[in-house]
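Q: Sequence in, structure out?
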Amino acid sequence: MLHPGLSPEQRTFFEAAVAEISLKRLRDVNRTITGIHSPTGRERELAEWLVSYMQGIGLDASYQPMTELSGNAIGRKRGNDARGTSLLLYAPIDTHMEGDASDLPWCGPVLRPDMQPTPIEQDGMIIGLGASNPKAMATTIAEAVRAVLAVKAPLAGDLLLGYAGGGMPLDVTAAGRRGLSDGVAHLLSRGVHADFGLVMKPGNAVSYEEPGLCWFKVVCEGTLGYAGMRHDLPNFRSSIVPMAKVILELEEWLTKYTVKNTSGLVAPQGWIAAVQGGSGGRAAFPSATTELFLDIRCNPRTPPAEVKAQFAEAIDDIQRRLGVELSWEMVAALPGARTDPENWIIQSARRAWEEVEGKPHPPPRVSSGQTDISMIRNLGIPTARTGWVANPEATPAEYLQGLGGMGVARPEDFVPVCRKLVYSIIDTCMRLRSDTGAVKTA
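A: Exactly. Output:
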């Protein structure tokens, strides 16, 4: 299909809306929502704040509960033509940490300022838990929509804002089993749908495919031991020492897995994330069971069943060579997904990028970061990912460690991507579905 640029009317509204973007508002909103604690499974307070904010900028907005403490925020501006193209702008709102002593020591010896839900400002930066990811995303898509509404752009199709809890790759049992993209699945499966989706994430490029994930649990069984007994105690089998060898073998296999399954824009990584066995308070009694947990990312062209089969072969080989007995299971799976790069929304996002950056869009780099975008695509909405690059030279090195700056936001970095979002809103919602390829024929 043809991918025309903005019409003269669209350009007039685009330029007017871009002029409405407020750096002060971006800073104020980002700081405010960074200070509203929203760990996975407990996002209600932030979702309700976003409902109120969306109502204040002219959207019909409502809160969608999932549990007593977890829910989504939905905003809608109805278009003026039933034939108009609809667009969903989406951001998750939950953070991956509790931001208190319960995070210690797995996140490090202390909670840094970027790990705490009490924002501070330093050299133009907002520092606090989730300030950049996901709360910069939530801030910026709201400002893009506000700017478009402020100039009264005549939108033919519906413009939707969706904010979901439960987006982090976590499985939070205590909070009602929230996580693993269940918030956006809840959102979309209950009527919030559009012709196209647009999501802002870190990375100054437009992407059309992202990986999924597969989680595995591996168990090594031994026998309960006692430190006062000799190592050659009859029938004693350690579960910990063999698992240490298994870990080294899996680390080597994971690099081969990445090479084998890399294609398109995805180079799927795998990580050994947790080992559990015994208790520090019972050091005299070696554990009879040691458990290992892995996250293995999967390419859109490698479904979870294929990942599972490859993992099974690896475990069988390790057992045979090491002479150990292991049991294992896949405990979570979210398939990757892609949108045709020629799809309207991908091309619109690329045109937006080139308009704002003033140069041709480069080939996107490969990645391994799993996001809610795969869930949105798998539930039927062609979706583009666009984003921004923070200024790493100005970010203290300690905040780049581990989390890559997720808790450090620089609001002026949001402005260019906000302009890109405005472009695609105008470009898409001011057109009929027949002009954007949203009309499907049998």
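The chain has a mean pLDDT of 94.
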